Amino acid sequence: MTTHTTDTSTSPLGKLLAHAASARSLVRAVGAAHAPAARIAAEAGFDALWVSGLEVSCALGLPDENVLTSRDLADVVLALGRTTPLPVIVDIDNAGGSAATARRFGQDLARTGAAALCLEDSAYPKCNSFAVHRRQQLADPHLMLDQLAALRDAAGEGTLLIARTEALICDQPLSAALDRARTYAQAGADAVLVHSKDTTGTQALRSAAAWTLPVPLVTVPTAFPQLGPDRLAEAGFALAIYANQLSRAALAAMRTAAQTFRATGTFDGVELAAVGELLQVADPAARSCL
User: Fold this and answer.
1) Nearest to residue 11, comparing CAs of 117, 100, 147?
2) With the C-alpha atoms ordered 18, 219, 217, 49, is the resulting torsion angle positive or negative?
3) Euclidean distance between CA atoms 192 and 164, whole angstroms
4) What angle do CA 42, 46, 51 make, to 5 degrees?
5) Model-level pTM?
6) Which contiguous run of DSSP H or E holds residue 71?
7) Could you report the per-residue pLDDT of 213-266, keeping only the tens digit for each?
8) Cα distances (Å, whole numbers) of residue 285 to 79, 81, 277
9) Is 4 left (phi over 0), alpha (psi -120 to 50) or beta?
10) What would the pLDDT profile of 116-144 be if each residue is shown by its tens digit?
């Protein structure tokens, strides 16, 4: 595969990542599976949105096991784009496990205006990185290179490619994870993500300390929320993806509201957004009497 680097000067997200990498600052993306989450993320000052495979699967009542299609993800990207101009990063998992399926993911999602695609090196069929009922397996790195090439060809120069390795999730040593990340970066990935389930954050910090290539490093701090943005930026990460926190917060709030109703027979006293706030997600000029 020919080494290639996207011209990030033409990409707003690329400019953000390049600045963050040189300035030791952090681009913050948050998971948004629907337009209300996108609106909340924009109001809170996040820099980008993440279309999470887990969140979208959950929203559709599907397992996080390679069931989503490119069309499922494209519908979400289009909904977010109607709501906010924030750049959208799409989690495409292992893109269906082949170069041919990766090409379709690239074609379909580039047409929606997705700013970046994140491809991981899990074997088909993947499972969630934090699952204990199944065990994640790694794909051959050569397949990952073929998929990156197919994505680049299909999505074009304006779409950033983030290469994610699940080596640490699969209990491989840090050296193996870094070898895979370097291979993907040298093959043309615009950023790399070494995913970790280590709740101390030590693995993540060690991966950042060992990273020497001029390609931005990405982290998903789901397992180590105690490492705040300043600490992650200081360690050398350019992008942090808060992948599913808004869905988890919404699930907890919905459960509390429903249990309150079950106990009292009323939603009176439950903290609810105004009806007008729902209207304003799609129509900022809308007003309501409630």
Assistant:
1) 117
2) negative
3) 6
4) 85
5) 0.95
6) helix 70-83
7) 999 999 999 999 999 999 999 999 999 999 999 999 999 999 999 999 999 999
8) 18, 18, 10
9) beta
10) 999 999 999 999 999 998 889 999 999 99
Is 64 among the residues known to form the active site? yes
Handedness of CA 217, 220, 223, 229 (dihedral sign): positive
- Catalytically annotated residue among 64, 91, 121, 190: 64
Quickly tell me which residue has 């600052």 as its tokens: 25
Alpha-carbon gap, residue 267 to 9, rounded angstroms: 50
- The DSSP annotation for 133-195 comes to SS---BPPHHHHHHHHHHHHHHH-TTSEEEEEE-TTTTT--HHHHHHHHHHHHHTT-SEEEE-
CA angle 81, 48, 30 (to 5 degrees): 105
Using left for φ > 0, alpha for ψ between -120 and 50, and beta otherwise, residue 58 falls in: alpha
Parallel, antiparallel, or unpaired: how do β-strands 217-219 and 88-91 relate?
unpaired
Q: Within a 10 A sphere around the Cβ of 199, how many other Cβ atoms?
A: 12
Listed in sequence order, the residues at least 6 apart from 110 whose beta carbon sits closer than 8 Å to its beta carbon are 154, 155, 156, 158, 159
